[in-house]
Amino acid sequence: MTAPLIVSSGSSTHTGLRRTLNEDAMLASTPVFVVADGMGGHEAGERASAAVIAEFSPYLGRLNLVLDDVLDVLSRARDAVDALSVSASGRAGTTLSGVVLADVDGMGYWLAFNIGDSRTYRLSRGELEQISIDHSVVQELIETGELDLADAASDHRRNIITRAIGAGSAGDADFWMFPAELGDRMLICSDGLSSEVPDARILEVLTAESDPQTAAGVLVSEAVDAGGRDNITVVVVDAVSVASHPGVQMRADDDIDEDTRPREAIAGRIG
Q: Which of 27, 103, 115, 236 has the fewest CB atoms below 10 angstroms from its CB?
């Protein structure tokens, strides 16, 4: 049986220049590609992000997942992180962002999800789009018109998040489901990248570096060079074979014309 969506991936992480611990954790193996950014101090954040990632591990090796699988993981992850807050001296919590591979009627789909301010982007046909929406005070101020994008990057409230797994938050994750296209490149990152490297430069690197592992490494290095004020984690995922119609498999070395492309991908929120 051929999977409707086959990918290649690369990943990289760095403690940064100002932290002694790397509280980020990641998983980059079919069908799960996620980044978690822990918080809480006294190793609580490191343990929280690791606990969430561990809940995805039993699904490795499957061709795809469904929404209920991810919801089950998030439920167990919240219980695990809440338990850490009871046993640890810090108030453990973590963000989570990423994608899992999905199958809809035999066609390859991305199922993206986010809670917190780690991010998921999609590079498609030369355009970089942020799929996830930051759960942060700054994002809320942008949406209400009280803060513009130019000032957001330097605003003193930029690190205050409004949803997390743990840390006293009961906020839910947001979900998006959209069809994969051959050549899609997904980027999942902690805010250690997005706060140091502007989207325009991220686009340049993702476009210039064809190998996903090289692209991930370059982005992390640039975030370190830009100041490295936080832990930095990057996962890059490329769609190398996509079933765009039932029984029709397109691969990276196939010629692509418009009548074999899937319909336009629209990132619609679920719930």
A: 103
Joined together, the tokens standing for residue 108 give: 């390859």
The CA distance from 190 to 38, in Å, is: 10
Cis check: omega of the bond before 262, within 30 degrees of 0: no
Place 250 in a pLDDT band, splitting at 50, 70 and 90.
Answer: low
90 φ, ψ (degrees, to nearest 5): -100, 170
Cβ(94)–Cβ(164) below 8 Å = yes
CATH superfamily assigned to domain 5-130+163-249: PPM-type phosphatase domain (3.60.40.10)
Backbone phi and psi for residue 56, each to the nearest 5 degrees, phi listed first: -85, -20
> How many other CB atoms are found less than 10 A from the CB of residue 259?
5
pLDDT tens profile 71-107:
999 999 999 999 987 665 558 899 999 999 999 999 9
Strand locations in 125-229 (E) = 127-130, 165-166, 174-179, 185-189
Q: How far apart (Å, rounded) are the C-alpha atoms in residues 47 and 166?
A: 12
**Distance between CA atoms of residues 139 and 117, nearest Å:** 9
State the angle between helix axes of 199-208 and 212-225 in degrees (0 to 180), rounded to the nearest 10: 150
Determine the Cα–Cα distance for residues 235 and 16; give it in Å rounded to an integer: 16
Report yes or no: 27 and 33 within 8 Å, Cβ to Cβ.
yes
